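explain this.
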Amino acid sequence: MSAHILVVDDIAKNVKLLADVLAAKGFRTSTAASGAEALERIAADMPDLVLLDVMMPGMSGYEVCQAIRADPRTGILPVVLVTALDPAQERIKGLDAGADDFLTKPVNQAELLARVRSLLRIKALYDQVQAQKTELESWNRTLEQRVSDGVQQLERLQRLKRFFSPQLAEAILTGGADDPLKSHRREIAVVFLDLRGFTAFTETSDPEEVMGVLREYHAAMGELILAHEGTLERFTGDGIMVFFNDPAPVPDPAARAVRMALQMQQRTGQLAQGWKRRGYELQLGIGVAMGFATIGGIGFEGRIDYGAIGTVTNLSARLCSEARGGEILLAPRVVAALGDDEFVIEPAGELVLKGLQRPVATSRVRSVRT
């Protein structure tokens, strides 16, 4: 698109002469016969350059130039003052008013075109810089929003990692998994564990010693929970509850639970050697059960935990309470799901468990079958 030039002069023949010369060179022109009309034209159809006569009735060219510079929208609009007065004195006044260049009447056509083209090149570069500035500001806003979104995403991811494996937490945030906090029902394998001798230990030890043991224990168990992609329901001192098959279904929840339980016993046995040297007699008891539970967000606004409710969780906890140090007790449904190929399992007898009406035929798992 050709550049738009506004020609301002109170003498019609001067306006026509300048407009014709510019139009012949391909410029789009508009005209104004006074300073006030010039400002109206600028407001209605922004030109790329203004050729402005100095001596006009009403508003002089200087006053029009000052008004142009005072408006933020036209602060950088190129203005060429055209005068028949003393060029030296007019140049000083014009510079004070904010003019960019000067032409002396009678106007030399070659000089007119050269000065117009020079100022238009400068304006084009300025427009390009402004466009790049606007684009950069847009990019910065987009980047700031993405950084903000990323920080929020990371915070949500860290909260989800409290309960789920890192892979599942990322899938939930990216829409690759259903909303886990929505209440739902699913069959799960539940592992409950706590330390034998822990109550006596807390009664005879300083709080700092107790917290030190718990940090070691929680760190070791947490590593194994993540490695087996279990869902951590809660830590309660030395008690830990983990379940499998939710929020992401897995093909072998019972086997995963038992593999994790065996590795937990092995790792706790290693920790117990160090604890024993410090005078602490602690061993791990584990119960594993399988069944349907209602699962989802539990709590209130400001504090939501992810929990499972159902007989299966109570059964796992009761089996854990009955398990001796180093022992893993299994509910019948777990044994049925495991089959006979992978693990060494033996009967542990019927147990009357608190809260359950009938005795439960339990089993203990010794090891992975070699």
Notes: The mean pLDDT is 87. The first strand starts at residue 4 and ends at 8.
